Amino acid sequence: MINWCWPNQLRAQGIMGMNERNSWFIGRYNDRRNYPLVDNKLKTKRLAEDAHIAVPELIGVIRTQHEASKAGSLLNSLNDFVIKPAQGSGGKGILVIVERDGEYFLKPSGERLTLLDIQRDVSNILGGLYSLGGKPDVAMIEARVEFDPVFADYSYEGVPDVRVITFLGYPVMAMLRLATHTSDGKANLHQGAVGVGLDLATGRGLNAVQFDRPIRHHPDTDITFDQLTVPHWEEILHLAAACYEVTELGYMGCDIVLDKNKGPLILEMNARPGLAIQIANDCGLNPRLKQLEKEGRRRASVKERVAYAVREFSTPPS
Description:
By secondary structure, this protein is of the alpha+beta class. The chain has helices at 7-12, 18-29, 35-39, 41-50, 65-69, 72-75, 115-126, 233-247, 277-281, 286-295, 302-312, and strands at residues 58-62, 81-85, 95-97, 99-101, 104-106, 112-113, 139-142, 161-167, 170-178, 194-198, 205-210, 213-215, 251-259, 263-270. Helix 8 (233-247) crosses helix 11 (302-312).
């Protein structure tokens, strides 16, 4: 595993730090005028739909407190759904409802909410409680993804997703994020989800971490990760690579979910993806990014970029 004790050891292992990420890669390759395309999930969804990129279905948008107070007629007609802030980050403010029990709405954990509880959450979203900079926001209501049953034993109380880091449109590193009881069914590592590094050639699981510490078993299901392989892998890589043309962001993270009926769907795009993916992969990002910089590989099709990544950045079986 990566030794996290000394800065010079981290550099020797190709580990990229926050300052380098911000100044060298985000600062140089992400034009700030394109940030709103990914910082606002509603804009991202519209952009992806226009580019014929598959995304979860948008059911509705709540823009005002008056609409929130009148949302009962819409929500009461739904058995399951997801509500999220358009400008939120880190999974904050996302509410997942998996089923109904009479007048109650059930979260993945089994917690029961009333319509008033949900309207209060929506009101908080509109007030900017979860948005970047506390700006007024809108609440998106989406169809809940029915995750692929291959993940049934690996994710607890929530939908797993695949985070792919791309650079100049090339996939350079990926991990599977698995929900836990601690993360409240959300696939966000800082909230307690498990991150599993993935081989770029096959989608095979490499290493697993929770709260930046290596683990061998899922904390809730007790299943090991040594037999884990993500299906539809080539399609996932193509989907992530195609986001470069949509956003023109040189360094970005693409979050993809696997719906059991619809296949891979783009969930979010991120102009400032975190660096914990290096811990999950037991591998630094720097050598891969610098290799692409050195070769100046910019003019290539999605298919060519994916083929290059699979060839150059595969992790040999241990």
